[in-house]
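FORM 12-B: Structure-to-Sequence Request
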C-alpha cells in the first residue's frame, strides 16, 4: 500500500488551465489511466489520466478551478504493487502536452461516479440523465457545449466525437455545421459535387481554347435555370400545309431585295395570340415564389445562333406589329446578333423565347426555359408526312413543336391547351385576325 500524488504533468508551458470536468470523488476506485478530470486551454481539451490504480483518498480540484503544471489533483491509495510499478511509465503516458485527436471511438456511458461528481454542473447533469434514456449521450466539455449552443447546434445530434474516448471537440461541432450547411445547399439545388478533373493529354494530343464570354455567361445561366426550375417538355406537331402555301405566295409577290418571310414569323404571331388567351404564359414568378407577375406587353425572344454563342434578341410589342414589319425586325436583329452588335437593351424584356432549329433539322428537342420567363417554344424542321384524313393518307407539311414550361407556374393540362391553341392559329392563320 502506498499513497501516490497525482499532479498536473507538463502541458507545455501553459498556466492557469481550466478544470472543466471532474470525474471522480473521494473513495472512488480508479484504474491506471482512467480519466480523472478534463482540463481545457484556449486551444485544446485534454483528459487527465490517473497514474496509479487504487482508491481516491483525497481530491484537490473542482470544476472551475485553474491549475498549472505540478498542481496536486488527488491522492490515490494504491491497492497493489503492480500499479505503483507503473507509476513512472503512466506519468509519461499521461503527459497531455498535445491535444488529443484520436480516431473516433464509441461514446462511453457516463460512469456512476462521474454522474455524482458532475451533479453540481447543470449541463453535465443533463448529459448523465440523457444516458439513462438514450443510447447516445454527447460526451463534451461545458465549453464545447456552450460553443455548440452559440451556433444553435443540438450536441446530441453529433454522433461521433474525435476526441479521446469519443469526446466531442470544438472541431467536431464545426465539422457538423459544415456538413449540415453543405447538405442544405445541395438540397436547394446547388453545391452539387464538382465534376472530376480529367487530364485528357494522357490519352492523346489536345488543344485548350478559352470559351467566349457569351458561352461562359450562357453556361452559367443555363446551369442556374436547370437546377432551379422543375421543367417539363411537351411535344406535339401541327399541320402547316396551308400556312406554308400562303407564305410561299407572299414571298412570290415580293421583289428580289425585299426581306423574305420565314415560317418563324407566323409562329411568333401564333404564340402571342395564344399568350393573350392564356395569360399565365405571359407571366413571371416573383423572387420569393409567392406571386405571379402578369405582363401586359408581348415581347418575344428569339434564340439566335452566332459564331460566339447563343444570344436572344427580343422583338417588342409583337401583338401590335404585322408580318412584314416583324420579318424586317427579325432579319435586322439576327444580323446584328451574328455581327456581335446587339446592345444589352436589345436582349431585355422578353416574355417567352422561341428556339428554332427548323432551318437546320431535327424532329424534337427539350429547350431550357429562359427564366424568369415561364416557357420556351422549341421548333424543329417541318416535314411532309402521310396523314390519315378519315378516308386516305394525304401528304401534309407537319411542323414539330416542343414546349418546355416551368411546372411551378404551368400545369401539364395548361401546357397541352396552350399548344392546342398555337396549333389552331398555325393550322388556320385566318384565326389570327379574330
Ligand atoms: N422547317 C422547315 N424549314 C425551316 C424551318 C422549319 N421549322 N425553319 C426555317 N426553315 C427554313 C426557312 O424557311 C429557310 O428556308 P429558305 O432558305 O428556303 O428560305 C431556311 O430554313 C433558313 O431559315 P432561317 O434560319 O434563316 O430563318 P428563320 O426565320 O427560320 O430563323 C433564326 C431565324 C434567327 C432563328 C435562325 O437564323 C437561327 O439563328 N437559328 C438557330 C437557332 C438556335 O440556335 N437556337 C438555339 C437552340 S438551343 O436552345
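FORM 12-B RESPONSE
SEQUENCE OUT:
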Amino acid at each position: 500500500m502506498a499513497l501516490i500524488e497525482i499532479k498536473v504533468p507538463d502541458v507545455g508551458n501553459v498556466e492557469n488551465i481550466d478544470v472543466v470536468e471532474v470525474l471522480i470523488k473521494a473513495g472512488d476506485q480508479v484504474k491506471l489511466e482512467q480519466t480523472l478530470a478534463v482540463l481545457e486551454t484556449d486551444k485544446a481539451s485534454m483528459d487527465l489520466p490517473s497514474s496509479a490504480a487504487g482508491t481516491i483518498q483525497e481530491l484537490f480540484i473542482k470544476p472551475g478551478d485553474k491549475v498549472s503544471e505540478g498542481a496536486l489533483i488527488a491522492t490515490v491509495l494504491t491497492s497493489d504493487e503492480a500499479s505503483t510499478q507503473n507509476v513512472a511509465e503512466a506519468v509519461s503516458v499521461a503527459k497531455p502536452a498535445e491535444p488529443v485527436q484520436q480516431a473516433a471511438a464509441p461514446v462511453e456511458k457516463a460512469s456512476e461516479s462521474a454522474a455524482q461528481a458532475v451533479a453540481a454542473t447543470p449541463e453535465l447533469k443533463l448529459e448523465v440523465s440523457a444516458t439513462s434514456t438514450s443510447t447516445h449521450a454527447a460526451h463534451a466539455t461545458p465549453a464545447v457545449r456552450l460553443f455548440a449552443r452559440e451556433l444553435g447546434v443540438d450536441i446530441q445530434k453529433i454522433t461521433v466525437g474525435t476526441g479521446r474516448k469519443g469526446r466531442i471537440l470544438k472541431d467536431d461541432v464545426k465539422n457538423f455545421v459544415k456538413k449540415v450547411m453543405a447538405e442544405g445547399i445541395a438540397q436547394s439545388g446547388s453545391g452539387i459535387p464538382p465534376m472530376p478533373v480529367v487530364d485528357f493529354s494522357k490519352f492523346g494530343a489536345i488543344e485548350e481554347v478559352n470559351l467566349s464570354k457569351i458561352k461562359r455567361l450562357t453556361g452559367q445561366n443555363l446551369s442556374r435555370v436547370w437546377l432551379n426550375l422543375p421543367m417539363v417538355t411537351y411535344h406535339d406537331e401541327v399541320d402547316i400545309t396551308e400556312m406554308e402555301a400562303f407564305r410561299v405566295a407572299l414571298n412570290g409577290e415580293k421583289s428580289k431585295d425585299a426581306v423574305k418571310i420565314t415560317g418563324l414569323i407566323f409562329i411568333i404571331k401564333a404564340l402571342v395570340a395564344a399568350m393573350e388567351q392564356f395569360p399565365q404564359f405571359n407571366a413571371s414568378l416573383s423572387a420569393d415564389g409567392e406571386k405571379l407577375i402578369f405582363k401586359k406587353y408581348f415581347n418575344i425572344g428569339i434564340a439566335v445562333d452566332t459564331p460566339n454563342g447563343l444570344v436572344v434578341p427580343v422583338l417588342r410589342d409583337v401583338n401590335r406589329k404585322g408580318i412584314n414589319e416583324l420579318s424586317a425586325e427579325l432579319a435586322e436583329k439576327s444580323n446584328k446578333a451574328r455581327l456581335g452588335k446587339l446592345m444589352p437593351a436589345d436582349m431585355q424584356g422578353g416574355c417567352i423565347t422561341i428556339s428554332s432549329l427548323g432551318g437546320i433539322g431535327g424532329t424534337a428537342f427539350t429547350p431550357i426555359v429562359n427564366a424568369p420567363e415561364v416557357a420556351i417554344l422549341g421548333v424543329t424542321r417541318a416535314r411532309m408526312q402521310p396523314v390519315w384524313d378519315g378516308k386516305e393518307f394525304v401528304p401534309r407539311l407537319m411542323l414539330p413543336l416542343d414546349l418546355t414550361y416551368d411546372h411551378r407556374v404551368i400545369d401539364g393540362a395548361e401546357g397541352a391547351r396552350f399548344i392546342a391553341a398555337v396549333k389552331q392559329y398555325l393550322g388556320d392563320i385566318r384565326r389570327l385576325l379574330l
